[in-house]
Amino acid sequence: MAVPKRRTSKSKKGMRRSHDALQFTIVLIACDQCGSPKPRHTVCPECGTYRGRQVVKIGDEE
Hints:
alpha+beta; two-stranded antiparallel ribbon; 1 helix; 4 strands; rod-shaped; ribonucleoprotein; Ribosomal_zn-bd
């Protein structure tokens, strides 16, 4: 069984782990109802719809 001869240094460990961090990018898509840009899988802040259903009541719609 393979065993390391030397202890891995802090810098080598950091270099190896440098690509492990998650990269968050906000992807904006157009809302199906109003067309305004919104993040994916969220309720539209302009019209209050999600997946074609009205889920949040917006104050200016009366």
